[in-house]
UniProtKB/TrEMBL annotation:
Species assigned in the record: Myxococcus llanfairpwllgwyngyllgogerychwyrndrobwllllantysiliogogogochensis
The UniProt record lists the keyword Aminoacyl-tRNA synthetase: no
Annotated PANTHER family: BLL1074 PROTEIN (PTHR46796:SF15), HTH-TYPE TRANSCRIPTIONAL ACTIVATOR RHAS-RELATED (PTHR46796)
Coiled-coil region(s): none
A Pfam family reported for this protein in Swiss-Prot or TrEMBL: DUF6597
InterPro entries membership: AraC_XylS_family_regulators, DUF6597, HTH_AraC
Protein name: AraC family transcriptional regulator
Entry-linked Gene3D superfamilies: Homeodomain-like
Amino acid sequence: MTTQSPHARVVRQASEQGGWELVFGTPDARLREHVHDYCGYRESTPGPVRRRELPAPQVVLIIDFGPPLRIVDPRTGRPLGRHPVGFVAGLDDGYSITETAGSMNGMQVNFTPVGARRFFGMPLHHLARQVVGLESVLGAEGPLLTERLVEAPSWEARFALLDQLLLSRILTAPEASPVIIWTWQRLRASGGQVEIGELARELGFSQKHVIARCGQELGLTPKLLARLIRFDRVIQVLKSGAAESQARLALEQGYFDQAHLIRDFRQFTGGPPGEFLRRRLPALGGTRAD
DNA sequence: TATTGCGATTGTCGAAACTG
DNA sequence: CAGTTTCGACAATCGCAATA
């Protein structure tokens, strides 16, 4: 079931296996360069669910209404930590695994790297390849934010609250440096297909300088970010079901051939594209992790 | 569709040199 | 002296072919 309103799009499903509700919110237009989207979710299942979360060119803020989502180390399968009111996941070039105890309830804000840099007010190498508790990043504001969102009467009210908070924080924070803004915009606009040397020439800085600044401010080197952007497009096409063949998709998105695409795919998801499609979960993104 | 091998090309990073 | 560039070694990615 899907319903529409100016600020929220709701998708719901219920069955004997439990039910879920997913609500997408559109951020205020002034946040366009900073936030991709908002999402609210509520799910209950008969047992624990593990999801494989794929890397993407975004910084994720999770606001947990409880019970808390667990983060599992993909290499060992052991729990990495729990963050009662929520957490931030910085840019990452590897997938991660989340686990629910049978239900989850909360919200997700997907920041652009530049938006996250500005919102969190710290160089993002502090957050890269890490999951950090909300209170460590936002201080006392973290738990307070979660509390206010829980108490809001509707998803729309929650989205409005997020707008308010993000606008007040972002618009009063200093802008990211021009080098970083240009790097991000150029990488994104090209679908991750500019040479880093070319990018540096356009900026009038040495390649070394651009790499260092990008790594410092956004948390990943520009090439890695470019590959992530390219890979993310592939994922979007695969999810939409619009891909004719892998070979075609690879060429369209700037890979040399199918082998090249599959290599990237293995590195970012732990398996080939076919496996991703078979394991894909209908709701809440992610794929089954077992 | 998926995997592997291998040479060529590009990206990254430390050390040294430069500039204001 | 801080910030930056240049140089060069090394690592990672790409390009291409072959094969299951």
